[in-house]
Amino acid sequence: MSDSGRSPLLSWTVIAPAIALVLLVLTWGRHIDPVLAVVIAAVLAAAVLAAVHHAEVVAHRVGEPFGSLVLAVAVTVIEVALIVTLMISGGDDSASLARDTVFAAVMITTNGIVGISLLVGALRYGMALFNSEGTGAALATVTALSALSLALPTFTTSAPGPEFSSTQLTFAALASLVLYLLFVSTQAGRHRDFFLPVAPPEAPEQPEAHAAPASLKAAVISLGLLLVALVDVVGLAKVESHTIEDAVAAVGFPPSFVGVVIALLVLAPETLAAVRAARRHRVQISLNLAYGSAMASIGLTIPAIAVATIWLKGPLLLGLGPTQLVLLGLTVVVSILTVVPGRATRLQGGVHLVLLAAFLFLAINP
């Protein structure tokens, strides 16, 4: 929030996205030098923090679970646009880009964001509490989407390799979109209360929970600045990708690890927002963000890629390899055991973070 007597236009949450947007325009398509890469990284971090601030303003105005939905969908729509753009311009080297990016997003959200949120909530309050009905429904949807779009192509036989035939891809795209829309209608409709925060009566009062929401005008401005900040985050991550590629090659990591780094950058706003919610005893909001982002990554990316195949040439590899399938299966099993009780200790948070560490380690050392 800006200081009293200072114009809101001079707030860092307004200035940071504006500077980042200017920098994005000036550097787009260029191969940047190391000094400029450091500057871009600093501006990128400021844009992430600004995105989190504006997301919280919008969320407080529209209420939950709509606030989490706004941030998850906004990030994913921009991420999908970036994936499609890179695939159209990337040639044969981008055949597995959608798969690698979506799988990285699923692992980061379901293990990274979930794990750190549960750990923060449990360390701060002794136990992280959430609604098992809503979280279980979200996990079931993520599981179905992952299996239909990422696991099945490994085993189908209509097309060579881990890819769908055109008919199968059309079915997967429609199924993904239907599942995602069905979940959103459930989350925002009759069963909205399944996705609201759970807190015991003795929980300490949180001033933010009782603060007056922003005015409609302020919320609309924050929504616009949120979208600008997210464009900045994704765009600057793309600008940094060449530097990241050089750094990854210099340390001897596989080229596919570049996609993991970019996914980490793109998901940074949601990660910070989830941690802040967990610190306020609102772990349910953190889980809404995590599973909502995983869901949107698959439910919006696969249909977009299916449409893009009209222009794309070459194979579209969607099926996961054996190591990835094991990690996905292990994540699903552990997630079910975490979600069913409706509460978690720091142990569950630690288990999910170890699974994330395993994913990152095996991405570096396949």
From TrEMBL:
Q: The Sodium/calcium exchanger membrane region domain covers which part of the protein?
A: 35-187, 222-364
| A Pfam family that the UniProt record links to this protein | Na_Ca_ex
Record's keyword annotation contains Cell division: no
According to the record, the segments passing through the membrane are 9-29, 35-54, 66-90, 102-123, 135-155, 167-184, 218-237, 257-277, 289-312, 318-340, 347-364
The record gives the membrane topology as: Multi-pass membrane protein
Q: Which UniProt keywords are listed?
A: Membrane, Transmembrane, Transmembrane helix
**Where in or outside the cell is it found?**
Membrane
InterPro entries listed in its UniProt record = Alkaline_pH_Ca-Antiporter, NaCa_Exmemb
Output the superkingdom of the source species: Bacteria
Where it mainly occurs, coarsely classed, is membrane
The record ties this protein, via PANTHER family, to: SODIUM-POTASSIUM/PROTON ANTIPORTER CHAA, SODIUM-POTASSIUM_PROTON ANTIPORTER CHAA
This chain belongs to the protein called Calcium:proton antiporter
